[in-house]
Amino acid sequence: MEQQAIIEANDPGTAVVAGSNVGKTFANGTVVALDNAEFTIPKGKFVSLVGPSGCGKSTLLRLIAGLIAPTSGHLHVHGTQVAGPRQDVAMMFQRATLLEWRTAIENVLLPTEIAGNVEDADRERAMELLHLVGLGDFAFSFPAQLSGGMQQRVALARLLQTGADVILLDEPFGALDEFTRERLNVELLRIVAEVGATTVFVTHNIAEAIFLADEVYVMTPRPGRIAKVIDVPLERPRELAIQTSPEFNHLVDEARDVLGAH
Amino acid sequence: MADTVAQSTMNQRAGMSLRTRRILTHAGIFALLLLAWEIGSRTGLLDPLFYPRPTDILASFWRVYVTQGNIWFHLYASLGLVLAGFVAGSIMGIGLGALVGFNPLVRRFIKPYVIVLEATPRIAVAPLLIAALGFGAQSKIAIIMLVCFFAPFINTLSGVVNVNEEKLELFKSLGASKMQTLRKLVLPEAVPVIMAGERLALTAALSGVLVAEFIQRDQGIGSLILTYTRNLNMASAFACIFTLTIIGFLIFRFMEWLDHRIAFWNHEDGLNRNAQKRQARWSKKLATA
Amino acid sequence: MMDPPKSNRPNALWLMSRFAPHLALFGVLIIIWELLVRTGVITTIMIPKPSSIGASIIDLYFVSGTIWPHFFITLTEAVLGFCIGAAIAIALAVGSSLSDPFRRYVMPYAIVMNVTPGIALTPVIIAWFGFGMGSKIALAAVISFFPIFVNTLTGLMQVDNEREELFTSLGANRFQIFTRLRVPAALPLLFAGLKIGLTTALIGAVVAEFAQATAGVGVLMNRFSFQLNMGASLATLLSMTLIGLILFYSMEFLDDRLVFWRREERREAVSRKRARAWKRRAETSGRTR
Ligand SMILES: Nc1ncnc2c1ncn2[C@@H]1O[C@H](COP(=O)(O)OP(=O)(O)OP(=O)(O)O)[C@@H](O)[C@H]1O
Ligand SMILES: [Mg+2]
Q1: The complex's ipTM?
Q2: Which of A249, B203, C112, C277 keeps 20 to 30 A from A60, CA to CA?
Q3: Residue A107's Cα: distance from chain center in Å?
Q4: Residues of C in contact with B206 (CB under 8 A)
């Protein structure tokens, strides 16, 4: 009940991520990548962005990450306006983007190294995170010695190493096979719950979006906009089996209607 | 981030003028360098005997090409040899490369020799060949052939060996004969690599003829440079060297053009041209049928 | 190709089985060659008996030791020339990768240097730097410059957008992006350039020795060739191969050490080493706490 109230209040002071009238155009205003996005994400919530290619999912993520600046509107994270890359927001990409000349643990330590000096405590934390993503035994393997799924786990550990509590994931497991992806999704939910992060997750896959999220933003292209926000009241922790339940399928239909109607 | 986007569109709007402005600045800087050189030489900072003035080089260009016109004979002599040696050497290289490439056993046994040859400065055989074959064109051509041989040989070999396994299996599954696989798969796949080898070979040929002419100083652009330098006529030596710059540039452009023609599928323009041509041919065939 | 055995030290048996066929073939070829010359099938002076090459090798390398001073002079020339060429090339490439205007100013001159056959400068460089080692070093530097420059620049200019974005999102500055992303990513190409540069540096040193010098293997080569002492010439040629191999493999060794992530065995070795270092550090810090 209390959280419901926060969402309704639409107050950038209590919401972790809030956007008002956020727009982004490219190529001198001819391409509207994102049009007038209004949203608030409360602390600890998991939001999925789903929609066809080119509907502005990555654009919205990169705006929140401070990698690009909006052409209109305002974005706040933890109540302060986003003006560039920041410590409390971290991002992960479709490709693992590991540095192939560093071992897994050294890749995880990269954020710490860039921010300043690496202390023993940072090393311990990096090792814990590798254990958390299930790669404790592979800390000293180079990326080329790891499978695609393992590389993404390293990238996830690196993301957590930043200490950010807003986590942005752009199709993080999109390049992996179905089985690995499902397994990693379940693990992702566990890990995110454990660290209590606020998460925005981009995907093409409606079922995946619903399975993971508290709220699904269904987006449509030309111009890119958030067409509908679907609340996902399914209980947590969730098991893969809920994907066959009637409630789940009802939610899938709801999202598909929005995308189909477009 | 946002302003980089803005900048790039600004550049586009100012496109032409920015480009011309840039070229003008470059030309200006080049002119300043030349001027500094000229002044340095005239005020005695640079000894004009060793470091010829730009104006002297220009005058020499005029002399060797027009009033005396003596460079033509030497150019003609050198370039003829380059062409002959390049064609002979690279044909041998490609032929042997393909032969070796197709035969795994030969390939295995030839490998150590290739490693040894690769480490040897091939051009060092020049005095040996001249001594053995005597003065004259044949020893020079032999030297050029030798320096032209290696790059096409190696590249053909690796091009033929590194054909995509999956494509080979496809051909096998289609029941293609050895000859068909060679003509329709292996050669086209190897062509870009072979072309890269030819490019290196033609450049090497130019160096080869120069070394041959440095040792055997009878005629050719190399011996001309040597003679001019010995007589401390550095301006004329530089006129010859810059001639070689121009030739080198033309060779570079020519090989690039050839690559776009032969390995057209690696280049945007080649793809477009061939797509159009083939479509026209196709519809003509349909119309006649 | 046969795979090396799994253990780190190849055992004697494996080495034998690996090299025996090659040695056997080499022996047979030499014997056939010797017989062909002895029975008078090959009569040209150009092709000496293997036994006379062998005799020359023994004499030049072991009995009189004539070759060694020349050997070390050429080696020094090539290495020094290479170091100078590489230092300038890498400095200019780094500058060009960091600043667009700088690159625009450097590029035209680098291209002119590339299309001019560097060998053509031999007489001029000898006039400038004298008959001694200076001119050999200079020519080696000049002709090894471009391949190193262009490879380093290409390597540094490769941009992986997602990785750059990762660094930006972590708040990395330009210097951090350069040292932690651009430079390591460029290393494989840099080494490819350095290997080509080393080979060309050796060519530069030898060609300059052909043109005018008092010492070096090029001088020796010239002398033996014109004495029609083919056995000794080929033995001298072999010393150039030796220099080439020494240079190439020392660079290959450095490459293997520095770009360790490209080869499986090295990756595993480094991986083990870092794990050990980590454990040691954890132990010592645990003790101090
Ligand atoms: N840097 C850019 N310059 C110009 N146009 C861009 C740029 N980035 C994105 N766009 C355009 O903005 C629109 C939205 O792009 P975005 O990458 O956000 O889509 P997406 O939903 O992530 O698509 P996908 O699912 O394919 O990743 C597209 O039409 C794209 O072409
Ligand atoms: Mg995207």
Answers
A1: 0.86
A2: A249
A3: 20
A4: 117
Asked if residue B65 belongs to a domain, the reply is no
Taking only residues 239 to 258 of chain C, the set having a beta carbon closer than 8 angstroms to any beta carbon of chain A reads none
Q: For residue C154, what are its two tokens?
A: 């290409």
Ligand 1, atom 7: closest residue by C-alpha: A26
Mean pLDDT value across chain B:
87
Distance from C-alpha of C169 to C-alpha of A111, rounded to nearest angstrom:
10
Q: What pLDDT sits at residue A14?
A: 67
Model confidence band, residue A70 (pLDDT cutoffs 50, 70, 90):
very high
Q: What are phi and psi of C104, to 5 degrees?
A: -65, -30
Task: Let me know if residue C22 belongs to a domain.
Answer: no
Looking at the CA of A217, name the nearest ligand: 1
The mean per-residue pLDDT over the stretch C78-107 comes to 95
The residue whose two tokens read 């190897």 is B190
Pocket of ligand 1, candidates A34, A59, A68, A208: which has the most ligand atoms within 8 Å of its Cβ, to mutate?
A59
Size of interface A-C (CB pairs under 8 A): 76
**Interior CA angle at A84 toward A80 and A90, to 5°?**
85
Choose among A188, A123, A108, A185: nearest CA to A154: A108
- Residue A130's nearest CA partner among A163, A164, A107, A99 is A107
Q: Which CATH class is domain A2-88+200-260?
A: alpha beta
Same domain, B130 and B11: no
C237 inside domain: yes
Question: Which A positions 49-68 lie with beta carbon below 8 A of chain B?
Answer: 67-68
Instruction: Tell me the HSE value of A58 on the side-chain side, using a 13 A CA sphere.
Output: 12
- Contacting C residues, span 139-178, partner chain B, CB-CB under 8 Å: none
Total domains in the fold of chain C: 1
B32 and B108 assigned to the same domain: no
Domain of residue B14 covers 1-51
The reply to whether B27 and B84 lie within a common domain is no
Taking only the tens place, the pLDDT of each residue in C162-220 is 899 999 999 999 999 999 999 999 999 999 999 999 999 999 999 999 988 889 999 99
Task: Say if C217 falls within a structural domain.
Answer: yes
Query: How many angstroms separate the alpha carbon of residue A57 from the centre of ligand 2?
Result: 6
B45 located within any domain: yes
Q: In the predicted model, what is the mean pLDDT of residues A237-251?
A: 91
Nearest ligand 1 atom, CA A55 = 21
B220: left (phi over 0), alpha (psi -120 to 50) or beta: left
B244–C225: do the CB atoms touch at under 8 Å?
no
Radius of gyration from C-alpha coordinates of chain B: 25
Picking from B1, B8, B12 by the largest number of A CB atoms within 10 A of its own CB, the best residue to mutate is: B1
Task: Report if residue B59 sits inside a domain.
Answer: no
Ion ligand 2: residues, Cβ under 5 Å: A 58
Which CATH number fits the domain that encloses residue C75? 1.10.3720.10
User: How many folded domains does chain B comprise?
Assistant: 2
Predicted TM-score of the model (pTM): 0.87
User: Is the same domain home to B115 and B163?
Assistant: yes
pLDDT of C168: 92
Q: What pLDDT was estimated at residue B140?
A: 94
Instruction: Say whether both B252 and B128 belong to one domain.
Output: yes
Q: What is the pLDDT of residue A262?
A: 65
Amino acid, res. C118: G
Q: Name the residue type at position B59.
A: A
Q: Which residue on chain C is closest to B208 by alpha carbon?
A: C119
Range of the domain at C175: 52-261
